[in-house]
Amino acid sequence: MKKILEFFKNTTVRIISLLLLILFILSVFLFFDAYVRQVKKGVSFYWVYRGDKYYRENKPQRAIDCYKKALEYHPNHYRARYNLANIYVVYEDYYSALDEYSKALEIKPDFMVARIDYGLVLSSAAFNHDRAIEEYEKAVKNKPKWLYIPFFINNRKTYKYNSGIAYYNMGLAWRAKSLLVGEDKFSAREYLYNAVEAYKKALKNLKSYEIYYNLGLANQLLRNNEEAGISYCKAIELAPLNYEAHYNLAILLRDMKLYRDSLEEFKKAGLILDVDGDSVKTRYIYDVLSDVTQKMVQQGDYKYLVEHVDEKGHKDGYSQAELTYVGGKLVVTDEFDRAVLKNFRTCSAKVHFEALNEE
Predict the structure, then answer these.
(1) Distance, C-alpha 169 to centroid of its chain
(2) Is the distance from CB of 231 to CB of 239 less than 8 angstroms?
């Protein structure tokens, strides 16, 4: 009896194995194309992996060869097309980059980062600002399904950051359009207002020096002096050693006849450029600073132009005690360094701008 059971058991196993083999062979014949596609897709992922490795190692040509090999096996690999487009941008082959971005987006329309980069190249390289703005609008409207796994993924946060980038680039595109309309001042102002709105939307998702600076610049061009001043001040608070915000703020204050505050900002801009070794810009800034000083003299503001040192030897918030000798060389202490940074971060006329804005 036992032998009979073992015979049937072994026979059943063999029959089942044979049936599975037959089914597998049939499936290969019936779904041969599907099997081939899966194999090719696997090979494609391998070449993308190789391309990413070369990309990280700063070997762009090898990376290009790998991505092209991957696309031979799997033309719909959107990540390979996106990475290939990024390398073309580095090589300044912008039309090839636009072609690859476009193909990647045809495969994956909700690929937000690719759409933002696509718009950026359309605007900055192809000067097709209208198309770029359309792409940025698509990017922010195409919201993904929210996914949150603690310590691993939070695509809501990623979307918020990318939206800030999209709106910022949209603002740049609108401002670029305003520069192309020539004497059509109405259209120029309309485009600048659109730029301002885009920058404000960007700031709801992302706070950065670049956004505040460009918001200040757009408002300055629109003669919205208070809004421009506040934006420049916020930019300076975030990045006090970038000379552009100090310089533009100084120009704004000069035009508003706030010469005392303008003088301080010109000094900061000049010192930053002087440290950077940009002698041409530094010379220009000090020429403008001299002009502002003359206007202060004409107004009779002599007292402010005279440097005062208090009884303790403090000047402009710094102390001689904060300078010391190390190895026979004069160096500044950390306290002095912090004092300098605090001084550069302090925005001239911030209280004045805020008061005007409240009115």
Answers:
(1) 8
(2) no
